[in-house]
Design brief:
single chain; 125 residues; mainly alpha; 69% helix; globular
């Protein structure tokens, strides 16, 4: 329960400036922030930056995937990703993707989050 509470508080704080911040955030920074978040049980400001970047990108992808990915049904999220537990899962998914693709960490964070989520949550056509 403490992880959920900490995560929700950090999301609220970080959401105040996420739009300009997300565009400037690189994969390197997101990797460090998310790694720090997971290691410290989502109790740091970096956790808020990590979680809000991923959550905001997920929401945009869920609503506008045809414009972002170029096709509908590119990604299908379960209802669980809308919860605090689901967000923790998304952070772990993105962190795993970033760890496995160190050569792309110089790219913008939001784009890497899109690729990670599309790979992790494909639609079953």
């Amino acid at each position: 329960m403490k992880v959920k509470t900490n995560l929700l508080i950090l999301l609220l704080l970080a959401n105040l400036s996420i739009v300009p911040f997300a565009n400037a955030l690189t994969g390197w920074s997101l990797f460090e922030y998310c790694k720090d978040a997971v290691e410290k049980n989502f109790t740091t400001l970096h956790a808020g930056s990590c979680a809000s970047t991923i959550d905001t990108t997920r929401k945009m992808l869920d609503k506008y995937q045809e414009h972002i990915v170029g096709r509908t049904n590119a990604v299908c999220f379960s209802d669980e990703v809308n919860s605090a537990d689901g967000l923790v899962q998304l952070v772990r998914v993105v962190l795993q993707y970033l760890e496995g693709n160190p050569g792309s960490l110089n790219l913008e964070a939001w784009g890497l989050v899109v690729v990670a989520l599309v790979e992790a949550f494909p639609c079953n056509d």
